[in-house]
Amino acid sequence: MMPGMGVTAAEEPAVSGPETTDLHVLVLAGGLSYERDVSLRSGRRVLDALRAVGMQAELRDADVALLPALTADPPDAVVIALHGATGEDGSLRGVLDLCGVPYVGCDARASRLAWDKPSAKAVLREAGIATPDWVALPHDRFSELGAVAVLDRIVDRLGLPLMVKPAQGGSGLGAAVVRDAASLPAAMVGCFAYDSTALVERYVPGMDVAVSVVDLGDGPQALPAVEIVPRNGVYDYAARYTAGRTTWHTPARLEPAVAEAVAQVALAAHAALGLRDLSRVDLIVDSTGQPHVLEVNVSPGMTETSLLPLAVQAAGLDFGRVIGNLVARAAGR
């Protein structure tokens, strides 16, 4: 078995057959977050993939019509392709629990924890998992204590360069690398446009990688790491979803021992946060080969440029069969 590769094409479990093709699957996508467009793209791809393996799937937005629909015609399982708060802060999962509707992915508690980056980083640090030093700064404290004094103290404590990003959010929205102190105020303002709390962490130079974790029935397994090389050096929203802005290498160009270490760290992060079914762990591998976890996503993107589908392909697996397997397992819970 290749380092960091949890399953091979030969090991892929079948998901077609009467017990799965008869399932009624609801794919939730859209929502009202800044990531609505990406979510719709993810949802449509999941929908097509499930239908390709014979499942009865439909796409629905998370709006006022959702609860009546769940009551009138409860699905056997839900795939949450919502990004941003709606799909990742645990609230929708809690509602699905109230309705008795099973879904792919972690439960509401774990989702809330992973969604809040400072809280998740604290749990990872307590578990002995390397993550860059950080400070979380609410906008109110930033204003009350004096922006200049606070920013000076941040630079003194964490040094430069820094990464500034929303404490809750995804897709690189509101994130910026700060290489000199003069650029920090603007980065904070940009961040606060997307969230009331900014996460400022020490920038670790190195290779950007993402490791997708899936559980197809034999426990969580790490798929091959995806190496991310954005053209402008920052993996922001445009780099993620605009063709030609980023080059991906799957598997990542890592020495076998480093690839194995990255896979094990991703699995440890998945476990420490209490996740299930699937997740995507974003990391930096520094010049010594040490992986540092940046954040963990419980509702990974599923678009044509998203990292989990790239990892599935690199593992020699069929995307529809993987998602179908996760759906079948959720329906059986």
From TrEMBL:
Compartmental location: Cytoplasm
Protein's UniProt keywords contain Repeat: no
Keywords per UniProt: ATP-binding, Cell shape, Cell wall biogenesis/degradation, Cytoplasm, Ligase, Magnesium, Manganese, Metal-binding, Nucleotide-binding, Peptidoglycan synthesis
Primary location group: cytoplasm
Catalytic activity: 2 D-alanine + ATP = D-alanyl-D-alanine + ADP + phosphate + H(+)
Note on cofactor: Binds 2 magnesium or manganese ions per subunit.
Pathway(s): Cell wall biogenesis; peptidoglycan biosynthesis
Binding site for Mg(2+) 2: 295, 297
EC code: 6.3.2.4
Binding site for Mg(2+) 1: 282, 295
UniProt-annotated catalytic positions: 35, 171, 306
Enzyme's top EC category: ligase
Keyword Metal-binding listed: yes
GO cellular component entries: cytoplasm
GO BP term (any one): regulation of cell shape
Cofactor: Mg(2+); Mn(2+)
Protein family: Belongs to the D-alanine--D-alanine ligase family.
Function: Cell wall formation.
NCBIfam families tied to this protein: PRK01372.1
Protein name: D-alanine--D-alanine ligase
Organism of provenance: Micromonospora sediminimaris
